Amino acid sequence: MNWRVVILALAAFAGVEASRTILEPGVTVFEHTHWNKGPRVTAQDTIEVRFVMKSCPMKRAKLEEMFWSVSDPASPQYKKYLSLPEVADLLHPLPEEGSGDLGAAEVVRRHLLEQPGLVAGGEGMVKITKTRDIVTATLNAQAAEGYFATELHHFAATSTWHAGKSLVRAAAAYSVPSALVGKVALVDKLLRLPRLEDPKVGRGHEAAGGDPEFDSCGVAECKGATTPQVLRKRYGFPSNKTSYTEGNGMCCTEFQLQGLDKKDLKSFGAKCGVEHVKVDSSTGLGGNLIPGVEALLDVEYIEAVAAPIPLSVINSISYSLVDWAAQLNDDENPAPVQSVSYGNDEVQQESAEYMYECNTQFMQTGLRGLSVLFASGDQGVWGRTGRDGTGEFHPDFPAGSPYVTSVGGTDFAVPSQVGEETAWANGGGGFSNTFAAPAYQSNATLAYLASGVALPDASAFNATGRGYPDVSALAGEQNGYCVAAKGRFLKVGGTSAACPVFAGAVALINDELLAQGKAPMGFLNPWIYGVAAPNGAFFDVTSGNNNGGFGEGFTATTGWDPATGFGTPNYETMRDLALNSAV
Q1: What is the pLDDT of residues 262-279, one digit of tens each?
Q2: DSSP per-residue string spanning 295-332
Q3: 496 catalytic per annotation
């Protein structure tokens, strides 16, 4: 054997490997029980990925400082939002002319196009967002395997509700070549197989003597259901607005190949007394491709609360928060309210890098004056991971992010009677294992922990973490929401309903603010904790527990709690407090 040749070959191999860097190294699991691993990609397959640029820590710190200043009602900079180009210049300013510096995103774009056979098509298949922080590329899948030094497989959803859905994902760690090291934080849509949740189909409590609003849609399948009339009676929402203020808007985002059916929307409006139920614009794949219960629930109930304020829908078939961010980053005039009924557990392949970069995106949206609301989850304290034998709770992301508003869930204390509410057992809530309690809520979380309420075992949760949810709305299956889907009516529960309902309330408030020449609400949480909650803007929920029906959970009590936040919207008080602001 020629040992000199072997040694030289090994040295060359080591040199190639040393020139690469594994990204998101903390991710070590590449399969999921909700997805069947299928064959490797073929020469006919393509994959769209998004390269997220690294940001300078000092520039990011400045971004965060400005984010808090425009979001804090006590700040002189409150609601002095930035334009999209101004936000872009904070993190990734354009290089000075003649400097020779191309900027990280342009370096990545050119590098990808230089790789023979990698890009599936011409230059148009590699795009940079207007914020210059995300590069989107459609790649030939087999070539991408070599480029990322990994294996790419087709994964098919196992759930009957999600039959036909598939993803291409890496079945091992991935890395990038030296040309990208220091420029790219992560490549999205290579990892993260989400846990797929089936809709929470409710039974509808047909109690004798129930209030008539629970049968106001007039269809047998929705007897005992939460309807638009129920929401108006409980929360004080106005009935069938006929106009809106120019510049206002609201948006729902659909991640699970969830489409819409115009016939269902029309049927819901006709039966449930909502005069305007339509999507005014949409981006991304989805549309009416596969009508889905989750998407229809979102649209029907944000419309029930806030129509005819223009509604847009962002679609992502890849279950990617970066997809959502990239579309916002290319929109000069996005809807001021963004409702997202999607999430995962912090421990479910959510790398630290991924959550860090998502938080950067959330701060950018807030700095532009957007209110971003996420559903808190539908598995109680156990999260999508479920009870795993350790007794530890599984907090949600992004609901547990300090930079978004998290919406939890409630039931009526007395079934089928509009009145006081109780914590929904399956409502997501708890304390983040990753993020500390932010300044705006530290007093609230400490007050809960010191309130004397029965707490779970200390080993189950991180008492110093960011507490969530912030607020809540009806979500339980006890009186599930009346939804028109796939040519029929059914009752559906979940914080996927609560989130668009609360988001609709914010859109209504923005409508009146804009009519007075004032700025929209923006990031809500400092206002929620510092202004709204102390002044009676929410119906406090003081009973119930979110243990998911098993073992320990968090008990609702007076004030903020990690089962229902501060409670549910007392709309007229919310509106009045917002309008009393000088800006």
Answers
A1: 899 999 999 999 999 999
A2: HHHHHHHHHHHHTTS-EEEEE-TT--HHHHHHHHHT-S
A3: yes
| Confidence category of residue 557, pLDDT binned at 50, 70, 90 | very high
Alpha-carbon distances, residue 97 vs 88, 94, 131, 222, 325 (angstroms):
17, 9, 18, 63, 28
Distance from C-alpha of 231 to C-alpha of 569, rounded to nearest angstrom:
10
pLDDT in tens, 220-259: 999 999 999 999 999 999 998 999 999 999 999 987 655 6
- Calculate the CA dihedral of residues 9, 10, 12, 14 and round it to 10 degrees: 170
User: Which residues fall within 8 angstroms of residue 496, CB to CB, at 6 or more apart?
Assistant: 199, 294, 297, 298, 341, 375, 378
Query: Tens digits of per-residue pLDDT, 464-489?
Result: 999 999 999 999 889 999 999 888 99
For the CA atoms of 490, 493, 499, 500, what is the dihedral angle to 10 degrees? Answer: 10
Q: How confident is the model at residue 459 (pLDDT cuts 50, 70, 90)?
A: very high
Q: What is the DSSP letter of 438?
A: P
Active-site residue, from 282, 318, 416, 496? 496
Q: Sort strands 184-188 and 46-53 into parallel, antiparallel or unpaired.
A: antiparallel
Residue found under tokens 């991710």: 27
Clarify whether 294 is annotated catalytic.
yes
Indicate which residue of 145, 294, 303, 396 is catalytic. Answer: 294
Q: Give the pLDDT band of residue 285 (cuts 50, 70, 90).
A: low
Three-class SS of residue 269? helix
What's the whole-model pTM score?
Answer: 0.93
Measured between alpha carbons, how far apart are the two ends of the chain, in Å? 80
Q: Which of 215, 254, 298, 540 is catalytic?
A: 298
CB 22 within 8 A of CB 173: yes
- Told to judge if 457 belongs to the known catalytic residues of this protein, a careful annotator would answer no
CA 245 to CA 329: how far, in whole Å?
24
